[in-house]
Amino acid sequence: MPRMGSEQGQSYPKPFNPLSKESLGRSLTEAFLKSTTQSLPPSEKFPGAGVYALYYTGALPLYNELVSRNLVSKHPAPIYVGKAVPPGSRKGGADFDSATGFALHGRLRLHAESIRQVKDLEILDFQCRCLVVDDVWIPLAESLLIAKFRPLWNLVADGFGNNPQGKGRKDQKKSAWDVLHVGRKRAENLKPSAESKEEIEAEIKAFFQEIDSNGK
Questions:
Q1: Whole domain around residue 83: which residue ranges?
Q2: How far apart are CA 203 and CA 147, in angstroms?
Q3: Across the chain, what does the average pLDDT equal?
Q4: β-bridge pairing 10-11 and 6-7
Q5: CB within 8 A of 184, min separation 6: which ones?
Q6: Per-residue pLDDT at 8 exceeds 90
Q7: Phi and psi (nearest 5°) for 128?
Q8: Beta strands 38-39 and 10-11: pairing type?
Q9: How many CB atoms lie within 10 A of CB 166?
Q10: pLDDT tens across 134-166, in order?
Q11: Would you say residue 26 lies in a domain?
Q12: Global confidence as pTM
């Protein structure tokens, strides 16, 4: 039986690992992109937890570059990727077979409410794509999708998916997202951000320039 590796100048392929990050990422992305885009939030309530992506199609100048790219892309890039986990899992209280309820749909409804509250975004300019995923794979699924699509609201203008302020968060500062998009109620009493709106906008421009320089 031939050994793996190199022998007398001949190389052999590595064994296929269906659970490698590369294999999982390919499988996940294929399944995710097969799901249809829907309005935000989806009109029909559905059960399950999993991962999702939000897509922006509006005319806000700040995101013109993203919208223009997506018009000619086979697989448009989401502006945000997130996850919805079963109740109790954030505190370690959920087991592998815990009831998921309507975690994914509920999370998308919360995001829709955040967008409705701000002054410069319109909910009709957003669509979503979601995939119900077995509980144990949800964190990995989110990480792989973020790594593949590099969503703007995850990597630069972060804070969109932050949970409402609670105990121990009195000193929390406004997120980059709330600096850009004013009006979300949960951000009203937070301390000012260390970055100005102009600085964050400059980071967004640099982000797209980096993508161009890398040929992506």
A1: 35-213
A2: 19
A3: 87
A4: antiparallel
A5: 114, 117, 118, 178
A6: no
A7: -135, 155
A8: unpaired
A9: 8
A10: 988 899 899 999 999 999 999 999 999 987 765
A11: no
A12: 0.85
